[in-house]
Amino acid sequence: KQQHQLDEENQRAALFHSSAPSSSLGADGEEERETVPLLSCKMADDKSDTVQVSEDTAHQISIDPWYQVGFILTTGVNSAYVLGYSASIMVPLGWIGGTCGLILAAAISMYANALLAHLHEVGGKRHIRYRDLAGHIYGRKMYSLTWALQYVNLFMINTGLIILAGQALKAIYVLFRDDGVLKLPYCIALSGFVCALFAFGIPYLSALRIWLGLSTVFSLIYIMIAFVMSLRDGITTPAKDYTIPGSHSDRIFTTIGAVANLVFAYNTGMLPEIQATIRPPVVKNMEKALWFQFTVGSLPLYAVTFMGYWAYGSSTSSYLLNSVKGPIWIKTVANLSAFLQTVIALHIFASPMYEFLDTRFGSGHGGPFAIHNIMFRVGVRGGYLTVNTLVAAMLPFLGDFMSLTGALSTFPLTFVLANHMYLTVKQNKMSIFRKCWHWLNVVGFSCLSVAAAVAAVRLITVDYSTYHLFADM
After folding, report:
1. Taking every annotated instance into account, which residue ranges of this chain make up the domain Amino acid transporter transmembrane (predicted)?
2. Is 277:66 a contact under the CB 8 Å cutoff?
3. Between the CA of residue 357 and those of 131, 132, 362, what are the distances in Å?
4. Between 297 and which of 169, 293, 406, 463 could a Cys-Cys bridge form, CB atoms 3.0 to 4.6 Å apart?
5. How is domain 59-466 classified at the CATH fold level?
């Protein structure tokens, strides 16, 4: 009997917590409070499908000011990937399509990320992982699917970053000795090793701190050098060709791939994990960080992307620093800065995997720099980055990785899931118009995701027939 009474009390407590207040994005953009019911009828009826959300983590959470999170987001946006956007976005889309696409992608990305930020506390629980949020709303199957999508997204972003770091190292070597001895796969292997050394010494995302400042400095160095030298080349170079290259069918596929690159440029696919590090009030502070990312933080991206395309037209290199002309020492500084910034940026995108490994398999005892914890990071993170580096060296097709990542992961995680989760949680507070708007986003971005995946696979197939495994590009 006492056990029966205890069970009833637990059920009432669970019902109370499932109705806890949660932030909502009102029609006027202001934060409002509302009661959130138990989110899924399936979850309410099928207890075996319920995912128990845990805030247990081996990493630090809820300690970072909003501007530190803003710099984390900006570091991701202005990583060395920006040196490829002139070729991967502007060349396939042209001036009008590329310019409008970048602005529109920024707007819809800001909107989708704001929706996701407002779902950080749902059902009376704080969700520090994307998969926890999806599992709480939909159940265990979506927990697993979301984790798989996120893993693919972050793995491919990290693969691309290692390729970029390798390209930067090779560019430095070619400036001094263009003898073909040091090939790209060797540079990629060296880059992976340096990234692993950095991962061993930085235990969690919040520990980046001063490294975020250095990352910003490195970003500004290579972006400013690329901008100024492209400007000079553009002034001294005769008329450029801005014609979109390729046959009619090629243009269709490259345009779709460029659309995937647009959403890839602004989104991390790990917003809940980043938001977990921010201080309360969580939603308001995250909104500040997002506004910083999509305003001031995106200006360098626009500057170098537009200038690179203006200077070199459709002949722009997929790595802009390979197109610019100027003193060797300046190009060396730019490439070295790109390499170092990439090492820091990779740690950001690898942090969800590190958190999972540290929490699941770590000892949980001692400080982060205890010998046994350092050795654990060496073994586990070293193994993860070894696989990343091997894939990067085997398939160094950077632009194709950006397209495929945007198609398979960024579209579903940032736009499809964010809109559908918001619709599921807030549907009782929505007008018919707002429901239709979110469903339009879900269906539209799902179709774009499928089309972009087909286009990206085609691009990889074409490149694979042109190049070979461990190609020296």
Report:
1. 66-457
2. no
3. 15, 16, 7
4. 293
5. Amino acid/polyamine transporter I (1.20.1740)
